[in-house]
Amino acid sequence: MASGLLAGGLGSLLGIGGGIVLVPVLVLGFGIPLEQAVPASLMCVVANSCAAAASYVENKLSDLRLGLTLELATVMGAIVGGLVAAFVAEAMVAVVFGLFTLFVSLQMLLLRTPLQEPVSTASYVPTNYPLGISGSFVAGGLSALLGVGGGPLKVPLMSYGMRVPFKVASATSNLMVGVTGAASVAAYAWRGHLNLGLVAPLVVGVLAGASVGSRLMPKVPTAVLKKLFAAVLLLVAGQMLWKGGEGLWPSIWK
Amino acid sequence: MAEHMEMSEANPAAHGVLSSVGRPGAGPPPRNTQATAVALPAPLPEQLEEQLEVQLQQEPITHPDAQPRAQRWARRAMAGERWIARVLRTGAVMSGGMFVASLALELLPRGESVHVAIDLLRKGAASMLLVTPVARLAMAGTLLGLRGEWRYTAIAAGVLCLLALAVGAGFQA
Fold first, then answer.
1. What is the dihedral of CA B77, B79, B81, B87, to 10 degrees?
2. N or C: which end of chain A has fewer CB within 10 A?
């Protein structure tokens, strides 16, 4: 429940769902098999999205139109990713994604002149839709290939690529991950991999964490959120490089 | 006077009175015509007519305190977003409540009925949680459609269809 609380708080603040925190904690901390940890964390992503997005939609932090547009591209990417999964070297994709997230996180951490963001979240217009749509398509494909949520890719994409304010990008990503997460959980549940005994305490913790996180987010300075996001991205990069290295190392050794 | 009569016959509208019914001493009106004199308004300048037309289009007068269209749209948008938030919050709270109840039941001594109740509560909570974002998506599409933004309704329908396809095929989106 405590790890759910942490994941819920962090996920709602940064728009990444919280799976990135939960899966390592469940697998390494509690010794739960990955086949059960992944659907349980996805269920928590859905819970987090529902609880936090309610507040964000009401406060006009989530951009419904942008979310719908990018969601379509993400789902299409996920289907294509699922179709080509058999023909793509997963380890190689993990390494490329790991290097990309490492680059983005270092840029966010080291950037000294932050981008000028509008004061009000209502006074902006998303730009560069082709980049956003194609990026979301890639994010969907990666989520199907690597089992990572689209949040770590979509938030920087919206924030830096489409000039959407960071908080709006985070809130919109939070709204989007719920739908894609629900579809993924349904697929796992269909195959009987969903352990509800494990899910119950996690969801309760996540709902409490998301409730706190969604109330905190509008008050936290954007610079702090960006640094926190960069730190989480570093964690994702580490996980991906580890995963890729594990897959590539035997072939290099030979 | 004769000049005046000629002018009004040549251009009756210029004086705002129908020549056949309004002239003094013109005699009784022919059968099947109105016997009253109808004063017609003088024609308005074109610019003024256009202005009036625009004003009428902007503010259809249905009742005295009718609001401008922009305000009504803004109010509808606000109400729509509030409804989406309500759907999300209701789903999360009900699902959370059912999970909490199932955890509370675990504290009771184990029996067949308790076990069945826990199982039912957890399945119901999980189903509610999974349905909530999909309901939100459908609702957002419908509300944007009602506002006239049909493009987003089509996008929402497309996402729902693709999700159904993905779940049916067993892909993980």
1. -150
2. C
A and B: number of Cβ contacts within 8 A: 165
| Interatomic CA distance for residues A203 and B100, integer angstroms | 9
**Amino acid letter for position B169:** A
Which pLDDT belongs to residue B1? 43
Closest by Cβ to B103, choosing from A57, A69, A200: A200
d(CA B33, CA B31): 6
Our CA-based measurement puts residue B159 at a distance from the nearest CA of chain A, in whole angstroms, of: 5
User: Do A236 and A152 form a contact (C-beta atoms < 8 A)?
Assistant: yes
What's the sign of the alpha-carbon dihedral A4, B118, A28, A47?
A: negative
pLDDT in tens, A155-202: 888 888 888 888 888 888 888 888 888 887 887 787 777 888 888 898
For chain B, list residues with pLDDT below 70.
1-49, 51-78, 169-173
